[in-house]
Design goal:
alpha+beta; Methyltransferase, Cobalt-precorrin-4 Transmethylase, Domain 2; Immunoglobulin-like; 3 domains; 4-stranded antiparallel sheet; 7 helices; about 30% strand
Amino acid sequence: MRSRPSSNASPRSSMPSTAASNARSSGLARSSCYRADCRVRFAYANRLQCGAMNDRDLREIIARGEGQTTEFKQSFAESQEAIESLCAFSHAQGGLVIFGVRDDGTIVGVQVGKQTIEGFANRCYRSAVPPLTPEILEFVIAEKRLAVATINKCPEHVVGYVSGVAYVRVGKTNQVMPPGEQRRRYHVGFVAANSTQQPAVAASPANVSWHEREAHRAEMYRQHRGLFLGHSWEPSSVPGQVADIVIFLRQHDSGEDCDRPLAEGHVKSVEYHLGAKFFDNTVVVGHDVPDFRLSISAYGPVLCLAQVNFDDGSPPIMLDRYIDF
């Protein structure tokens, strides 16, 4: 791909071929993905605005440094982190990732091969659920080549996942989206898909009827594939701790036609996240452990997040449980 010959020329862009084929004259590129874990089809759209950006605009953005809508990456070796940032931007105000710039704002340039941009675009598309389809552009500043990936804010009812984790941008960092916010977004989407009322009105808790709440409860069973976290505890034998806790996976069986991935042996692993006070890394428990149990000791309550991975081709799902005792 060639760089722009001058600052007045429009930068060239690259998108995954699947997403590009869906581009419409309105300036929107849309891609749809069936979310097996929530049984709802969402359209994930990105407005292609970056074509109007010029060199001066980009210099000003770099000069302001990293922040709520900007992330710097020195090379495409940091592609995974860049995709996580794009996911986080989409759940906040939108934003852009600039390749070829150090964290301190120094422009060092980036090597862009024949397949580099297309490869990154396709990786964005494959790595996220629903797929991410950023607009990707090349610039030349001070004789150094840069690549810019930009994405807009996604609809309020969408929760996007990268490797099973939903991120949201907070200042200069990507944070895991709180479970409560994920549930709120699911609820907005569910009500919008199952009601003729305006989504903003239907999503208000004061306007949700008993029947809507019951329908939402049933939908949560389907979203979770009947899987939930449970825990048991007893007084701790560890000095300084209050409780010895066992966290485990449970399968809800609601009838002959229900989904039973745990009972049918389709759960591959569970990735537990309890925060830095417990573990520095996510703890992965495999199918060789009964009920995918995890044992911990604690001196106070903790929120546990768990990503459940499957071997039947289904995308992972996120569960949470507040561990109290």
